[in-house]
Amino acid sequence: MGQVVSAFYSWFNTDKEYKVLLIGLDNAGKTTTLYQLHLGQAIETQPTIGSNVETVKHKNVHFEVWDLGGQATLRPSWVTYFKATDALVLVVDSTDRARIGQVKDELWRVVGSEDLKGAFVLVFANKQDLEDCMSPADISSSLKLHDIKDHDWHIQACSAKEGTGLVEGFDWMVQRVKNRASK
Length: 183
Description:
The chain has about 180 residues and is of the alpha/beta class. The chain has helices at about 1-10, 30-40, 100-110, 135-145, 165-180, and strands at about 15-25, 50-60, 60-70, 85-95, 120-125, 155. Belongs to the small GTPase superfamily. Arf family. GO terms for molecular function: GTP binding; GTPase activity; metal ion binding.
Protein backbone atom coordinates (compact mmCIF):
# COMPACT_ATOMS: atom_id res chain seq x y z
CA MET A 1 0.00 0.00 0.00
CA GLY A 2 2.85 2.35 0.86
CA GLN A 3 4.35 1.86 -2.60
CA VAL A 4 1.07 2.85 -4.24
CA VAL A 5 0.82 6.03 -2.15
CA SER A 6 4.49 6.81 -2.82
CA ALA A 7 4.08 6.27 -6.57
CA PHE A 8 0.93 8.41 -6.59
CA TYR A 9 2.68 11.18 -4.67
CA SER A 10 5.74 11.12 -6.93
CA TRP A 11 3.49 11.22 -10.03
CA PHE A 12 1.92 14.50 -8.94
CA ASN A 13 4.65 16.06 -6.83
CA THR A 14 8.19 16.07 -8.04
CA ASP A 15 11.13 17.87 -6.54
CA LYS A 16 13.25 16.97 -9.53
CA GLU A 17 13.85 19.69 -12.03
CA TYR A 18 14.48 18.55 -15.59
CA LYS A 19 17.04 20.36 -17.70
CA VAL A 20 15.85 21.44 -21.15
CA LEU A 21 17.96 23.09 -23.85
CA LEU A 22 16.10 25.39 -26.22
CA ILE A 23 18.11 25.65 -29.44
CA GLY A 24 17.65 26.81 -33.01
CA LEU A 25 19.02 29.30 -35.48
CA ASP A 26 18.83 33.01 -34.76
CA ASN A 27 15.35 34.51 -35.20
CA ALA A 28 13.59 31.14 -34.91
CA GLY A 29 11.55 32.24 -31.87
CA LYS A 30 13.41 30.56 -29.00
CA THR A 31 13.19 33.45 -26.54
CA THR A 32 9.55 34.12 -27.44
CA THR A 33 8.87 30.42 -26.82
CA LEU A 34 10.64 30.52 -23.44
CA TYR A 35 8.74 33.54 -22.16
CA GLN A 36 5.42 32.38 -23.58
CA LEU A 37 5.89 29.18 -21.55
CA HIS A 38 7.23 31.01 -18.47
CA LEU A 39 4.95 34.07 -18.37
CA GLY A 40 2.05 32.98 -20.57
CA GLN A 41 2.53 35.89 -22.94
CA ALA A 42 4.71 37.04 -25.78
CA ILE A 43 7.22 39.73 -24.91
CA GLU A 44 9.35 42.01 -27.04
CA THR A 45 12.73 40.27 -27.42
CA GLN A 46 16.24 41.06 -28.56
CA PRO A 47 18.72 38.59 -30.06
CA THR A 48 20.07 36.37 -27.28
CA ILE A 49 23.78 36.74 -26.67
CA GLY A 50 24.74 33.82 -24.46
CA SER A 51 21.70 32.33 -22.76
CA ASN A 52 18.50 32.96 -20.83
CA VAL A 53 17.30 30.51 -18.22
CA GLU A 54 13.90 30.22 -16.57
CA THR A 55 12.02 27.60 -14.61
CA VAL A 56 8.87 26.50 -16.39
CA LYS A 57 6.29 24.51 -14.46
CA HIS A 58 4.01 22.41 -16.63
CA LYS A 59 1.55 19.86 -15.25
CA ASN A 60 3.36 19.89 -11.90
CA VAL A 61 6.73 19.12 -13.50
CA HIS A 62 9.53 21.65 -13.20
CA PHE A 63 11.76 22.29 -16.19
CA GLU A 64 14.90 24.39 -16.07
CA VAL A 65 14.81 25.77 -19.62
CA TRP A 66 18.02 27.15 -21.13
CA ASP A 67 17.45 29.38 -24.17
CA LEU A 68 20.74 29.38 -26.09
CA GLY A 69 21.70 32.09 -28.58
CA GLY A 70 21.39 30.87 -32.16
CA GLN A 71 23.81 33.08 -34.08
CA ALA A 72 26.41 31.14 -36.07
CA THR A 73 29.21 32.38 -33.80
CA LEU A 74 27.39 31.12 -30.68
CA ARG A 75 26.33 27.66 -31.89
CA PRO A 76 29.71 26.01 -31.18
CA SER A 77 29.28 26.97 -27.50
CA TRP A 78 26.06 24.94 -27.19
CA VAL A 79 28.14 21.89 -26.33
CA THR A 80 29.07 23.44 -22.96
CA TYR A 81 25.42 23.11 -21.88
CA PHE A 82 24.87 19.47 -22.90
CA LYS A 83 25.79 17.69 -19.64
CA ALA A 84 22.83 16.39 -17.61
CA THR A 85 20.26 17.50 -20.20
CA ASP A 86 16.95 15.66 -20.13
CA ALA A 87 15.34 17.18 -23.22
CA LEU A 88 16.29 19.16 -26.28
CA VAL A 89 13.79 21.57 -27.84
CA LEU A 90 14.63 22.67 -31.36
CA VAL A 91 12.71 25.74 -32.49
CA VAL A 92 12.44 25.98 -36.28
CA ASP A 93 11.30 29.08 -38.17
CA SER A 94 8.80 27.42 -40.51
CA THR A 95 9.09 30.30 -42.98
CA ASP A 96 12.91 30.14 -43.30
CA ARG A 97 13.24 27.73 -46.23
CA ALA A 98 16.68 29.10 -47.16
CA ARG A 99 18.25 27.89 -43.90
CA ILE A 100 16.44 24.58 -43.29
CA GLY A 101 19.63 22.75 -44.36
CA GLN A 102 21.57 24.60 -41.65
CA VAL A 103 18.91 23.62 -39.11
CA LYS A 104 19.29 19.98 -40.14
CA ASP A 105 23.10 20.15 -39.86
CA GLU A 106 22.90 21.70 -36.37
CA LEU A 107 20.29 19.18 -35.20
CA TRP A 108 22.35 16.21 -36.34
CA ARG A 109 25.55 17.65 -34.84
CA VAL A 110 23.77 18.04 -31.50
CA VAL A 111 21.91 14.70 -31.35
CA GLY A 112 25.18 12.93 -32.11
CA SER A 113 26.69 14.15 -28.85
CA GLU A 114 27.38 11.49 -26.24
CA ASP A 115 26.40 14.02 -23.53
CA LEU A 116 22.84 14.11 -24.91
CA LYS A 117 22.39 10.35 -24.98
CA GLY A 118 18.88 9.57 -23.77
CA ALA A 119 17.59 13.14 -24.10
CA PHE A 120 14.15 13.58 -25.64
CA VAL A 121 13.93 15.76 -28.76
CA LEU A 122 10.96 18.07 -29.27
CA VAL A 123 10.86 20.07 -32.49
CA PHE A 124 8.66 23.15 -32.50
CA ALA A 125 7.64 24.04 -36.06
CA ASN A 126 7.23 27.70 -35.14
CA LYS A 127 5.51 30.54 -36.99
CA GLN A 128 2.70 28.35 -38.27
CA ASP A 129 0.49 31.45 -38.09
CA LEU A 130 2.35 33.00 -41.04
CA GLU A 131 1.54 32.47 -44.70
CA ASP A 132 3.78 30.26 -46.83
CA CYS A 133 5.18 28.38 -43.85
CA MET A 134 6.45 24.82 -44.20
CA SER A 135 4.20 22.18 -42.67
CA PRO A 136 5.47 20.02 -39.80
CA ALA A 137 5.59 17.11 -42.29
CA ASP A 138 7.80 19.16 -44.65
CA ILE A 139 10.09 20.14 -41.78
CA SER A 140 10.23 16.57 -40.52
CA SER A 141 11.27 15.39 -43.97
CA SER A 142 13.84 18.18 -44.43
CA LEU A 143 15.42 17.49 -41.03
CA LYS A 144 15.30 13.71 -41.59
CA LEU A 145 13.65 13.25 -38.19
CA HIS A 146 12.59 9.69 -39.02
CA ASP A 147 16.29 8.77 -39.20
CA ILE A 148 16.76 9.65 -35.51
CA LYS A 149 16.90 6.28 -33.78
CA ASP A 150 18.68 7.06 -30.49
CA HIS A 151 16.21 9.65 -29.15
CA ASP A 152 12.46 9.78 -28.64
CA TRP A 153 11.33 12.72 -30.76
CA HIS A 154 8.18 14.63 -31.62
CA ILE A 155 7.39 17.55 -33.93
CA GLN A 156 4.74 20.05 -32.91
CA ALA A 157 3.22 22.85 -34.97
CA CYS A 158 3.16 26.09 -33.00
CA SER A 159 3.14 29.85 -32.95
CA ALA A 160 5.25 31.09 -30.07
CA LYS A 161 3.92 34.61 -30.57
CA GLU A 162 0.30 33.45 -30.21
CA GLY A 163 1.13 30.68 -27.73
CA THR A 164 -0.53 27.94 -29.78
CA GLY A 165 0.95 24.44 -29.81
CA LEU A 166 3.44 25.04 -26.98
CA VAL A 167 1.31 23.37 -24.31
CA GLU A 168 0.84 20.30 -26.51
CA GLY A 169 4.60 20.05 -27.03
CA PHE A 170 5.29 20.25 -23.31
CA ASP A 171 2.48 17.75 -22.65
CA TRP A 172 4.49 15.31 -24.78
CA MET A 173 7.64 16.05 -22.75
CA VAL A 174 5.85 15.60 -19.42
CA GLN A 175 4.57 12.22 -20.60
CA ARG A 176 8.12 11.14 -21.55
CA VAL A 177 9.53 12.31 -18.21
CA LYS A 178 6.82 10.51 -16.27
CA ASN A 179 7.24 7.32 -18.33
CA ARG A 180 10.97 7.36 -17.64
CA ALA A 181 10.45 8.00 -13.91
CA SER A 182 8.04 5.07 -13.59
CA LYS A 183 10.57 2.60 -15.01
